[in-house]
TrEMBL record:
It comes from Coleophoma cylindrospora. Residues 223-325 form the Fe2OG dioxygenase domain. PANTHER family: 2-OXOGLUTARATE (2OG) AND FE(II)-DEPENDENT OXYGENASE SUPERFAMILY PROTEIN-RELATED. One of its GO terms (molecular function) is oxidoreductase activity. This is Fe2OG dioxygenase domain-containing protein. One of its GO terms (biological process) is small molecule biosynthetic process. The lineage of its organism: Eukaryota, Fungi, Dikarya, Ascomycota, Pezizomycotina. Gene3D superfamilies: B-lactam Antibiotic, Isopenicillin N Synthase, Chain. Keywords: Iron, Metal-binding, Oxidoreductase. It comes from the Eukaryota.
């Protein structure tokens, strides 16, 4: 008599977390547990920025090394003692709240689709980073509004001497000057302090990547420096599709984010687990973007993040500042981040070319969105 053993296979299907990167859907990371799991982070460190303001190079180097360690592993940090006056931050929130409370028809006077650089008001549900858009689950997922503006020479505390050609590379911001002039003043005051902080951080990143402090100075005279101030509306308990912002990486050099006390930001570790980045008073969240990952040949990691579905009936406000580089900057992989054993994994970055390429990838979606809005299919007049 023979007996047959039937092997019981537990062929579990791999699970993935998907994210949006480089103007496209479809990037993914496998969820790993048990023996397969990597040693990876489970929290986000807080870095004290006070030594960055020291006159002594060794103090600045010490904080730069700390930041480099965090950016090589987590790609996200909180900074405290960052030097930006709380009153300036509070005023940015005050005007943000007051702006979003305006009637939608008023906000639509500065609709971002009227502006070549998409500066201005981003209507509710306009953002589309959630992977589910690809699958056509719903048109109305990311329940947030935004207001986007970028570099303005007049508000730069260290104004550069730009040629007309360099000036022409910038998009012109639009503002609700007639209906709410304090909005521009509050937001641009905040922007100018954050730009200054951003330049200081770039010098620390340079030190942490073992080049001299001034390495990036001539690439950030008039950088792409964009704020998109946000209001996430309370989510409908009967509509599970509604969400904050889909998983993505930021494409610029780095981001400095102020968030209110509501929470919801999460970041993805190497095992594709979502790690919360809860609000911590007196801090900004700073994260590596794709350009810094490229310039550092992958040494600094551009970490995937999202804002999860909000619970509760309070809106959430956040103010990210996306720090880029000059439009005419050309940034090769840093000499200290490459060697014969570690050749460049990335082509040199040409900022203008990158932005043109990104817009091309987005063109079809932008055109579809514009047509939908014009046809009233996705009403930009929805409000909570
Ligand atoms: O609102 C937040 O906390 C994050 C927003 C964000 O990731 C983005 O706008 O790129
Ligand atoms: Fe982001």
């Amino acid at each position: 008599m023979s007996s047959t053993t039937v092997a019981i296979t537990s062929a579990t299907q791999p699970q993935y977390e998907y994210f949006y990167q480089d103007g496209r859907f479809g990037a993914k990371r496998e969820v790993l547990t048990g023996d397969k799991a990597f040693k990876t982070f489970t929290e986000i460190p807080i870095v004290d920025l006070a030594p960055a303001y020291s006159d002594k190079l060794e103090d600045r180097e010490q904080v730069a090394r700390k930041i480099a360690e965090v950016f090589e592993t987590v790609g996200f940090m909180y900074i405290k003692n960052h030097g930006v006056d709380q009153a300036i931050i509070d005023e940015a929130y005050r005007v943000t709240k007051e702006y979003f409370d305006l009637p939608t028809e008023k906000k639509m006077q500065n609709f971002n689709y009227k502006n070549d650089g998409l500066r201005g008001y981003e209507a509710l549900y306009s953002a589309r980073l959630d992977e589910r858009f690809k699958k056509g689950v719903s048109d109305n997922i990311e329940k947030k509004e935004g207001y986007t503006f970028s570099y303005d020479e007049e508000w730069d505390m260290v104004p550069p001497n730009l040629t007309e050609a360099q000036r022409a590379l910038h998009y012109i911001n639009q503002w609700p000057d007639e209906i709410f002039p304090e909005f521009k003043t509050g937001m641009m005051t905040y922007w100018s302090h954050m730009l200054t902080l951003g330049r200081r951080l770039m010098r620390l990143f340079a030190l942490g990547l073992d080049v001299n402090e001034e390495y990036f100075d001539n690439m950030m005279r008039a950088p792409l420096a964009t704020i998109r101030t946000h209001r996430y509306s309370p989510m409908d308990p009967n509509n599970e599709d509604e969400n904050g912002i889909g998983a993505h990486t930021d494409f610029e050099t780095f981001t400095m984010l102020s968030q209110d006390s509501i929470g919801g930001l999460e970041i993805l570790n190497l095992n594709a687990q979502w790690i919360p980045a809860p609000p911590i008073e007196g801090t900004f969240v700073v994260n590596v973007g794709d350009w810094l990952q490229q310039a550092s040949n992958g040494r600094f990691v551009s970490t995937v993040h999202r804002v999860k579905r909000l619970t509760g009936n309070q809106p959430r406000y956040s103010i990210p500042f996306f720090f880029g580089l000059d439009f005419d900057a050309y940034c090769d992989v840093l000499p200290t981040c490459q060697s014969p054993e570690n050749p460049p994994k990335y082509k040199p970055l040409n900022i203008k070319e990158y932005l043109v390429g990104l817009r091309k990838k987005q063109e079809a979606r932008l055109a579809k969105r514009k047509a939908e809005v014009e046809a009233g299919i996705v009403s930009p007049f929805d409000s909570y």
